[in-house]
Amino acid sequence: MLTLPCAMAVAIVPGEADACHESKICVEIPVSAADQPVGDFGVSETVVARGTRVRLVTPGAEGVTDVWLDDEGCFTYESRYRYGLKLQVFPEAFLGVNADVRIRGFDDRPAAVVGIEVSPTVGGTIPWRIDIDYAPAGNADSPLVVHVNADDMADMFGWLIESFYNVDGYAGITGSRDILVHTEIGDAQAALGAYNSGDLIMLGPIARNRKFIVAHEFGHWYQSNWTGLGLGVDYLYEDNGEADPTAAKDADCDFQNATNTEEINDLHGLRSAEYSAEAMSEGYAQFMATLAFNIAVEPEGSGEGEYQYYKEIIVANQPSYADLVDGNYMVSLLGGTLESTVGGRSAWVQNMCPADWNHPLLPESLGEHVSSEIDWMRFFWGFIADPDPSISMFGTPPDLRVVLDLFSAAGTLEAQDQYGTFEVAINNPSNASIFPFAQRFESIAIKNGVKSNE
Hints:
Blueprint: E1 21-30, E2 46-48, E3 52-58, E4 63-68, E5 74-79, E6 83-95, E7 101-106, E8 128-134, E9 144-147, H1 152-171, E10 177-182, E11 194-197, E12 200-203, H2 211-227, E13 273-275, H3 276-292, E14 306-308, H4 322-326, E15 330-332, H5 348-352, H6 354-357, E16 370-372, H7 373-385, H8 389-392, H9 400-410, H10 418-426, H11 438-448
Helix pairs in contact: 1-2, 1-3, 2-3, 3-7, 7-11, 9-10
C-alpha cells in the first residue's frame, strides 16, 4: 500500500479531511487481579502501556504509522483526519534505561515445552484492535486516551510491564534482553502454575490474575539476567524428607500437602524450611514482587512493604498456617518481634522451628543451612528500607543495585549455605560497591534469621 506524509496525501473525497494537524493518543491497559488492592502501585483499573508497539491506520493515502509508545504510553502523529482511525496495539514493548529490553506476550504454549527451540515467530502476538471514532486535533495537553480489550493477555502483559517499569527504576538493567511471556503452561503446573526459565515466563490462568505472581516470576528473570546466575533450586529439604531423611521439618515450617492441588505447588511455601539457596531465591522473588508495587523508602511510601501471598492453603492440611489464612494472606515485610506480626514473626525458622534451625549442627547434616522464604524476603527489604535506628546507624541504606551487585560478587549459588557466600563477598574490600554496607548486611541478616545457626 502506498503511504504518503500528511502534507502530501490527498483526501479521498474533497472536504472530507482537514488541513494537516498534530494529534496525541495515549493507550492504557485494563488489568484485574485478586490482589489488586494491595500496595502503593497497581491499585487502579488500568496501567500505562509504556513502550508498547502500536500501529495507526488513517484513511486515504496516509496509510499506516508504526510507532513505540513513550514512557507515558503516548505518541503524537500528523494527519488530515479526525474520524475513521483504527489503532492496533501489540503485546510487545521495549523498556529499560536504553529501551532495549524487549517484552513479548504470546497466546499459546512456547515451543520449548515440547522440546523445540523457541523462535520469535512461535506463539501468537495478536494485536488488540481499537476503532477511534473521533481524534481531536491539537490536543497535546489533553490527549485522547484509549483502552485495549480486557482479557487474559491484558492482565499478563499489563502487570509485567508495570512490574518492570517500577522495579527497573531502582537499578536500571542494561544490555539487549528478552522476556517472552506466555498465557499457557504445562499440565504439571496447571492453573496456579508459574514458571521461569531464562527468557521464558509462563503463567497459568489463575497466576495471570495475581499481580504478585507475575512480578515474582519477573523477579526470577531479573536476578538471572542481572547476574547471569540461574536459580539453582531443587527444594530437596522440603520434598517429604525423601531426598534428605535428616530433614527435621517442624510443623510450623512444613508445607507438604498444604494446598491440596498439584504436588509442585507444595514443594515450597512462604514459611517452609528450605535449603539456603532455595529459600533465598524464592524470598528474593517475593521481595522483588513487593518492590514492584510498593514504595520502599519513607516519606514517599509507608516503608511497610505490603504483600499478599498467593497459594491458597487448606488449613486442615496445615494448621500452622491458620493465622496467615485468617489474615487474608497479608505479609508485612518490615516484620517485627511479636508473634502477631502480619504474615508471621520475624526470623521465622529460628523462632518457630528449632529442629529445622539446628539442622546444620547435626553430625549427619553439618553445614546444611536452612532458612525460609519469608525470612529472606524480609532480609532484602530490610537491607534497603528498614528504618530501625539500630540498623540505620550503619549509614544510608543501599539501593537495589547494591543487592544485585551482591549476587554478582558472590558469583555462585551455594545450595546449602547461600548466606555464607554472600557474607564472604560483602566483606571483601575489593568489592567496592557493596563493601560499605557489610555491617548493615550482617545486622539485617541476624534480625531476620538468615544468618545461619552455626
